[in-house]
Amino acid sequence: MSVLSDKSIRKLAVEQSMISPFIDKQVRDGKISYGLSSFGYDARVGDEFKIFHNVNSSIVDPKEFSSDNFVTKKSSDYIIIPPNSFALGTTIEVFKIPRDIMCIVVGKSTYARTGIIVNVTPIESEFFGTVTLEFSNTTPLPAKIYANEGVAQFLFLKGDQSPETSYADRKGKYMGQTGVTLPKV
């Protein structure tokens, strides 16, 4: 597997709509950067979040997930994640991953250096949709996540050949997701 460069990412974004909307360069302007980078793409988080809380003393169960476990917040500026807590968000960008590509996502250093961990599971070949982002506040302090700014870098890996079975072929349960998507079994 090889990591795609900015040239390859740009070509796939323009010719195959791999990333939409696609920002052809790094944008800063007083914001946490987003857009095309040397060997990846810095995606933005949208303005809707699900912030976990323990008001009802419930248990988080991925097989029987309850909406009592979180509150939904919409903000064009930022949200605050309580200390040692967790939130979900979604990318502004829609991703359409080609059959011979997979994607690994890592958090941006700006957030990592403030105790915010951005986690995303691997994005498989032929996935299509927005990507749900997981934020963990590992600090004993409240932490801000800025809406409509960069949060994670997507690294695109090209396989030595196309897979026998893609995410689309398997009819993956998160295929075509839009917005913050909760766990499915």
Architecture overview:
This protein is mostly beta strands and 185 residues long. It has one domain: Deoxyuridine triphosphatase (dUTPase) (Deoxyuridine 5'-Triphosphate Nucleotidohydrolase, Chain A, Distorted Sandwich), CATH 2.70.40.10. Helices cover 8% and strands 36% of the residues. The chain has two helices and 15 strands. Strands 1, 3, 4, 10 and 15 form a five-stranded antiparallel sheet that branches. Strand 3 and strand 4 form a beta hairpin. The radius of gyration is 17 Å and the shape is globular.
Number of domains: 1
Separation, N- and C-terminal Cα atoms: 30 Å
CA-based gyration radius: 17 Å
* CATH class group: Mainly Beta
Give me the strand/helix succession: EHEEEEEEEEEHEEEEE
Shape: globular
Question: What is the total tally of β strands?
Answer: 15
Mean pLDDT: 94
Q: CATH homologous superfamily, by name?
A: Deoxyuridine triphosphatase (dUTPase)
Count, helices: 2
Q: Main beta sheet, described?
A: 5 strands, antiparallel
- Low-confidence blocks of residues: none
Q: Enter the CATH topology name.
A: Deoxyuridine 5'-Triphosphate Nucleotidohydrolase, Chain A
Report the structural category.
mainly beta
- CATH architecture descriptor: Distorted Sandwich
Percent helix range: under 10%
